[in-house]
Structures are given as structure tokens and as C-alpha cells.
Amino acid sequence: MLQLISVLVGIAALFGWISARVLRLPNTIGTMLLTAVTSVSLVLVAPIWPAPHQVVVDLIREIDFQRLMLHGMLALLLFAGAFLLDLEGLRRQKLPVALLATIATVLSTLVVGGITWYAVRLFGYHSSWLECLLFGALISPTDPIAVLEMLRRVDAPRHLQAQLAGESLFNDGVGAVIFISLLAATKGVSPTASHLVTQMLLSAGGGMLLGSLLAIPIAYLMHSLDNPPIDLLLSLALALGGYAIAEALGISAPLEAVASGLVLRSVIQRLPGERIAHHDLKHFWSNLDEIQNAILFVLLGCGFLVVTFKRPAVYLGMTEVLIVNLARIATVAFVLLLLKLLRTDCRSSLPVLSWGGLRGGLSIALALSIPSSYGSAWIVTSTYVLVVFSILVQGSTMGLFLRRYQAPSHAVAHAAAP
Fold it and tell me: What whole-number distance in Å separates Cα of residue 135 and Cα of residue 127?
């Protein structure tokens, strides 16, 4: 385990340096790109020189990515993302965030699942409706880790940052409940619509309530003592302990992490600040988030060594890039239309919300949790292709996309100036 951690941290550090110093790319995108290129190179030279490829593959296969992601890194990543969020921006955009996190996620699951049922047959697969809906459920929620990392790099308008960040933090709870219910259905438990809604309310509501209840006493413990290291330890205990308690209770651990991060930040902002190490806390969680993201993107790049890329599944994955993005545009457009009817003064952007809905490691972790007897071969490969496209193409071009989106408004403002 020590060797494995050392290798991952070493690769993340070296590729991060090359990315920043030589390639001039964002740290996570450059790290993943360099890891992917290295992995593909090892695969290509394996017939001539198999030893390095085999050593790396044996090392990577010791990692249970699903367990590491869902029951380890996710707790700290979600807590950090929520704790560092713009609370005032989120408060102003609570209605768009709520609609995007619920209605858009449910509709996208149905649309992606339905179109995928037809698409898989074009490439020789005969998956059931349930398997296609499983794929729709794991790929429809936007990934908070990828989205929040991308938003830190681009100069998006404040209201769009709040909408994208808030949606990505909250829609995982909705998607997870749908995914778990559909996965149970593959084992003979047929969920009804009322059962799904009840489970969603209990799981999501329970997770958010638990996170809120745990965060409040932690905030007052911080305020009772002027000791920055203790403040950091208390926040770590909340992030890890709250997530573990939520998992033990069978409620939404991701939403517990989000709620605890948001409530802790909100409460300590209202308390007299001289005893709370606000700067140290923000600096600590920002750096920890960056380090974990770098290691996570190294792991995603290493997937080229262990994921089976059969040609039909790769072609299906490329088709899913189109299907998922078109479904994203359609569902976001529906939500924004509904939003206009409810609040005529609400500002948003269909192009930015659609292109900024990134997928990441969480989707891969869910795909790996599907039993091999339920179409997991094409699901894992297609998910991986879609995630790579999302991070490397959508994530790396979002800054340019925003500049082009904002250019007309800047031109109008300049023309209107006296």
C-alpha cells in the first residue's frame, strides 16, 4: 500500500510539474493527459517489451477504484467542494439548482436510457431496458469533482458558477438513489415510482439533515478554542466521520458531505471570527482538494491499462458522447423553460450549462459496481470513453467557450457606453 501511494503521488507530482512548466495546461487536465499518453505507450510497446507494462498493470489492479472513490476520496472531495462554495451565489440560485439537480437528472436518465436501448443494438449488444436505464442513471448526474475543478480555472459569470456547482453537488444524491433502485431491480426487486420517490426523499433528506446536525456543534467547538490545528482536525473529523455515519445508516453519504460542508461554512461565517482560523481552513481544504484531484486524474489516466477497449464498445462510447450531450441540452432547455415560467427575472445560459455539465470518476466508480452479468462490459468502456471526452475536451475548452459566449455581451456593453 505504501509503495502504491508513493507511486501515485510521485506520478501526480511529476506530471503536474510538466503540465504547469512545459505544457502550460491546467494541472488536472495535463496530469490526466500525460498519464493517458504514458498508459497507451506502455500498451503499444508491450509486444516488444512486456515487463514495464506488466509491472504497472499489476500495481494498478491492486486498486479497488470503486471502493476507493465511493468509500474514501468522495467524502473529502465533496466536503471540500461544498465548504469552498460561494454561499451567497448558491442562495440566489437555489431554484435553478433545485430544478437542475432533480428534474434534469430524472429526465436525462430516461432520455439517455431510452435512446441507448436502440443504440446498443447497432453495435451488436442486446441489453435490456433496465441495463440501459442503469447507464442513464450513472451518466446523467454531472460530476462535482470535475465541474468544481473546471470552474476554479475559468472566469464564468457568478450566477452560472453557482448554478453549475450547486447542480453538480446535489444531483449525485438523486442519481445515486435512482441507480441503487435500478440495480436492486436487476436482482428481482421491482421498484415502483412511489417507491423511488420515497427512497429519494428519505435518502437525500436524511443525508442533508444528518450533515446539518453534525456541522453545527463542530462550528461551536471551533469557536470555543483559538487553535487552528484543532479547527483543521475538527473539520476533517466532520468530513470523514459524517460520511461514515451516513453510510452506516443507509442514507445519502454524498449529500451528507455536501450539507455538512455548506452548513459548517455558513455557521462559522456568522460567529465572531477572531477564534476561528478561516484563512487556514480555506487554504487547507483548497490544497487538499487540489492534491486529491491530481491523484484521481492520474488514476483515470491509468484506466487505459486495465479497461478492455473492444472496438464495438468504443464505437458505442463515441455514440454515447453525442447521445448524452444532446440529452443534456434537451433536459436543461426544458428546465430553463420551466424556470422562465416560475421566475421571469432568472438569468441562465443553455450553452454554458450544457457544455459545462462534465462527467468524471464518480460515473466510472458506479459503472464498475454493476455485476458483469448485466452488460457491464459495454457500460464500463462507454462510460470511460465519455468521461475522457468530457474532461479532456469539454473541460479544457470551457474557458474558450465562455470567452466566445461572453464576447457578444461585452461588445453590446461597449457599444452602449457613452
Answer: 11
